[in-house]
Amino acid sequence: MKEWIPDRPVSSGAAAYHDAVVDAPYYIQALEALAERAVPFMKKGQTVVDFGAGTGVSGLQLLKKLKSQLNLWLVDNSAAWLGKAHDVFKDEKHVNCMLLNKHGDIYDTLAQTTGKNKLDHVVSGNTVHLIDDLQGTFKGIYEALKEGGNFFIESGNIIMDDLPEGALLIDGTVQRVHDNCMSIIKSDPKFAEYKKDLLEKEKEQEHQRKFVFPDPRPLSHYHEALQKAGFTCGESAYHLFKVKYDEWLAFLRVQRLQAGILPEIGGHHPTEQQAKDRDEIITRAAQELFKDLEQNNALADSETFTIVGVYIDAKKEQKELKGKTALVTGASKGIGREIALELARSGANIVLNYNSNAQKAQQTVEDIEPLGVKCLAVQANISSRKETQKMANQVQESFEKIDILVNNAGIIRDRTFEKMSDEEWHEVIQTNLTGSYNATKAMLPLMNQGGSIMFISSIVGIYGNVGQANYAASKAGLIGFAKSLAKEQGKRQIRVNTIAPGFIDSDLTRTIPDEVKKKIEEAIPLKHTGLPEDVAHAALFLASEKSSYITGEIINVNGGLTL
């Protein structure tokens, strides 16, 4: 890693932006709140990245809050802006600047810039809402962090539930200023020369406006991207900040930003007159906005309005299953897919068994591989002893041994017993019960001492259900199978347990009429349907050392339905 040194003077745009926000109370308060969340996790000698460091203002707030010396790396993708940060910190020997290099239209990831597993923490203030490829960016941050590292985010452009009425997103106010600008151009003869083809220009320049001031996205969008990148999301919160109208106007009058607020006039390279007119129009538009807020916004007054900052904490968990290999049957969709993903997030290599849906299996592989583990998809009908043995041979060739076996694959052929055919009985028993026998028989010789075997049973296997005699018998059989196997394999320290899900949201339960589903949910003490992830979390527990003294047990995942 080599420190980046600017080769040209600081750009006027970066300098103007820095000057507009470096002492603005609302901006400082938002960054102080970010620093207060992050700094308690930082220890002497650690390496911290300020991602999207811009002109260095966020780095200044971090240093003010730090109580011990650490290495601070300021990272940005704009040489023009990072040059200002370098200028601010040039005398700080523990602060370095690093530029994300661009290749064609693609920037290097943070891991490509700093190296993998190098960083203790990453902090990002007022940046992530500008990123199109969130998952790819977050993946690069994830790979750059050490295990146990934290990623702290602040943005004024994230939609969060239950925000107070009148609290504004920063970029939302800019959109309103733009709309006011368009009205001024249309109505004021002074700016008649800009009216020609105005609507076409607005459409042409929309991408540029959205690039600088993008539309807000919901908090769930960020959580999903973080989780897909491998992070565990912690608590999210919001803070409200008062902004003085004159402070916000100073921000809006930064010429570099005006090219994004009103690109319809002059674009990036306005003439002197265009720049003057654009500034006047934006100033008038902002003043119109302020007047409207004063009169109609519950959180505004004659001098200030209120903006919201959203804060997200994420963590690269220490991988409890790192170096282990898990085989999950029936893992192309539903509960099996979620179990495979959950084990992969905790570091396990995955053998993904599927029967017929190669497309969904491949999609699951593509979702797992970015988590930094190996994933092998193997087609095998587990009701066939021959096919499961062939699968075991493939696993042995690729991984030699396994540590975790999850017998999840199963089918239903529901019908009342009197109407049930022999074929419907035998098909369910052969897949659900004998299939688990086949997979376990084939894989047990490949299991390391101290391994974990799981059978995915069902609440129906414990209590029965109308129209499911075949299914209930197969799932009850798994419970007896697991208990017997647990007694036999204890000498090898191999634990064998059963998970019995209750009413879990799935393709099957979605076909149940709403009135029936509502009655079932009313009978559940927690009053809602479970998710495949709920079962996956139980599977992770049974796969990990946290359950090292648990064997022969049934873990009920049913919201209390069995109470």
Structural commentary:
- There is one protein chain.
- With 563 residues, the protein is of the alpha/beta class.
- It has two domains: 12-315, Vaccinia Virus protein VP39 (Rossmann fold, 3-Layer(aba) Sandwich), CATH 3.40.50; 325-557, NAD(P)-binding Rossmann-like Domain (Rossmann fold, 3-Layer(aba) Sandwich).
- It is 44% helix and 19% strand.
- It contains 21 helices and 18 strands.
- It has helices at residues 12-21, 25-38, 57-65, 79-89, 110-114, 134-144, 170-187, 198-204, 206-212, 219-229, 245-252, 255-261, 272-296, 334-345, 358-368, 385-399, 422-443, 460-463, 469-489, 514-523, 532-543, and strands spanning 47-51, 71-76, 95-99, 102-103, 106-107, 119-125, 145-155, 158-159, 217-218, 232-244, 304-315, 325-328, 349-354, 375-379, 402-407, 447-456, 495-501, 554-557.
- The strands form four sheets. It has a seven-stranded mixed sheet with strand order 3-2-1-6-7-11-10. A seven-stranded parallel sheet has the order 14-13-12-15-16-17-18, sandwiched between helices. Strands 4-5 form a two-stranded antiparallel ribbon.
- It is elongated and about 85 Å long.
- The termini are far apart.
Provide the CATH topology of the largest domain: Rossmann fold
Radius of gyration from the CA trace? 29 Å
Major sheet: order of its strands? 3-2-1-6-7-11-10
Number of helices: 21
- Return the CATH class of the largest domain: Alpha Beta
Per DSSP E runs of 2 or more residues, the count of β-strands stands at: 18
Strand residue content? 15-25%
- Integer tally of domains: 2
**Any idea what the CATH architecture of the largest domain is?**
3-Layer(aba) Sandwich
Anisotropy-based shape: elongated
Amino- and carboxy-terminal Cα gap: 58 Å
The proportion of residues forming helix, as a percent range, comes to: 40-55%
How much is the average pLDDT? Answer: 93
Q: Which structural class fits the helix and strand makeup?
A: alpha/beta
The CATH superfamily of the largest domain bears the name Vaccinia Virus protein VP39
